[in-house]
Amino acid sequence: MNEIVKINPYGFREYDARWIYQKDINQKGISNLGKGLGTQIIKHTKKENPRVIVGHDYRSYSEEIKTAFKEGLKSTGCYVEDVGLSLSPMVYFAQFNLNADGVAMITASHNENGWTGVKMGINKGLTHAPDEMRELKEITLNQKFLKGIGKEEKKDNFQKIYKDELINKNKITKRIKAVVACGNGTAGVFAPDILRGIGCEVIELDCNLDWNFPKYNPNPEDLKMLHEISKSVKKNNADIGFGFDGDGDRVGIIDNNGNEIFSDKIGLLIARNLSTKHRNSKFIVDVKSTSLYSKDEILKKNNCETIYWKTGHSHIKRKVHDEKALAGFEKSGHFFFNHPLGLGYDDGINSAIQVCHLLVNQNKMMSELVNEIPKTYQSPTMAPFCEDKEKYNVVEDVVNKIKDLKKNKFKIDNQEIKEILTINGIRFSFDDGSWGLIRASSNKPSLVIVTESPTSDDRKLKIFKFIDNLLQNTKKIGEYDQKI
User: Fold this and answer.
1) Distance between CA atoms of 329 and 12, rounded to whole angstroms?
2) Residue 90 in contact with residue 187, Cβ under 8 Å?
3) What CATH number has the domain spanning 172-260?
4) CA atoms within a 13 Å half-sphere pointing along the CA-CB vector of 119
5) What is the dihedral sign for C-alpha 230, 232, 225, 204?
6) Which of 32, 139, 177, 234 is deepest in the core (most CB within 10 A)?
7) In the beta sheet, which residues pair with residue 305?
8) 9-158 is classed CATH 3.40.50.300
9) What tens digit of pLDDT does each residue of 415-470 get?
10) How many helices (H) and strands (E) does the chain have?
11) CA-to-CA distance for 135 and 123, rounded, in angstroms?
12) 221 phi and psi, to 5 degrees?
């Protein structure tokens, strides 16, 4: 290959790697990324020929990217075990099942077509966090590669092993009628079969694979996708609607009345259900999540603690691991179940299964369960464009402005800012439990905005307008993907 290496350094993100293919990274760059990861795995495992599980999602270019990536891995001495067309959680499961030394999943998850990326890890059940990503970036961009002789083995039957694992442990005793929506992404090969296998009556919605994503991107935070699921739930008189993202590690939920229930509230319902049997447990939630966890009477009664932590699947699963928490929940739909409920990683289909168990155990409709928790007015996750090179500085400036406003007792809708949390951007809260969040996206050139109020829809909107005004004044943000 005489091609010049092309790798945009900004593609090395907080906990995975993502680029627009050909524009920001080419095949030679992908191969070097494989060499970088192979070198890193050998360094950490101290093995000459570590075994690395590799899978890919159903995008038109994912297989050619995987081929270049595997060549890089093998050139360092890694033994590649290719499980083929996969979901991210299937690759994570394969590391446990096959007792391998590392994983690499070729996926850009829910990002638009043109994007590619890799989710990777060395320790079982954990994916790269910022330290590992910095190390990988340094090895790859400086071409500090080890040389060795690797090999490759195809694992042709692994889809069945993964499906059977989830089906055989999770049979349900009550029939649940479920709309299963996959946005034409890879989950279409897995989710309908598995949910049927546990005992659900499945209505498929956009489960045929089509890498053009003709209707919408497979993203369970996307209102377009959620609205389609809602229509199907109402039309089919279904008990529940599930929406899966492009690589199957996230799920979105629609209740039996066709209402969108944000995943942080589904997490709260699952946490309540688990807390009765698992008293004194810890739960980890991300800073985008509802404030209801911290005040929940059932969690308090069962002596359970909730810790708010940095958004991002790697951050939450590490915190779940480090705190020995029972589970972790992200507003984006990543759920993490630790021993004895799971292996700690995020699996959207397993999360849907846990919701099925919740419905069976409580013997109630999802709308009834949702009505048992206090009502809040929540925004969707909104993402205004902001250049990768600008976004962290913009957030830092906004954090300082909001700190000053708090000090000066500035009021938003007649409420003073009472509390500030800065573990991940800034989350500022008010006496009535309302709050707003501004952070930099970990995997795209954008910011992330969320607001919530237990008081009124109007207050939620006023907090958003305050945030939007701050951001517009920076002159550094562009269009929103969606907004209230």
Assistant:
1) 25
2) no
3) 3.40.120.10
4) 29
5) positive
6) 32
7) 282
8) no
9) 999 999 999 999 999 999 999 999 999 878 999 999 999 999 999 999 999 999 99
10) 15, 21
11) 15
12) -100, -5
